[in-house]
Structures are given as structure tokens and as C-alpha cells.
Specification:
four-stranded mixed sheet; about 40% helix; about 25% strand; globular
Amino acid sequence: MTGAAGPRVVVYTREGCHLCEAAEAQVAAVVAETGDGWERIDIDADPELVRRFGEQVPVTFVDGRQHDFWRVDPDRLRAALAR
């Protein structure tokens, strides 16, 4: 899931979240095209992440900056990764 330089995309998720599963699938498909790495982080493993994101998951970050939440737009993600 991660590239040699580390993941460019991070998806904050939680178990049992259908939106999270859909977001992960879309991220995986896009990075398979671009060759970039990605990582999934379960917020329930960290109380600070639960406080920070709460019910707003999935939250997608690209290059350390928040990109989207709840849904992933594949075209928008491709554009962000092209930069």
C-alpha cells in the first residue's frame, strides 16, 4: 500500500463504516493507476483521532493535507496526485 517515499494518501477510517470501505476502494483504484502509495488508519485505535474526526470518516489526506471527507471523487484525487 505504501511507496518507497511513504504514502501520499492517507485514509482515516473505522471498522463497519460502509462509506470508508467505498473510499478505500476508490483510493486503491486511483493509486493503482498513478503508482502512489496509500495507507489506511483506523481512528478507533487512537482517542485523539476519534476526537478529531468523530463521525466525519472517511477523511482523506493527500501529501499531509486534508483532501476530502465522507466520499472520494476519483477525478479530484487524480488531479491532486498529479501535482
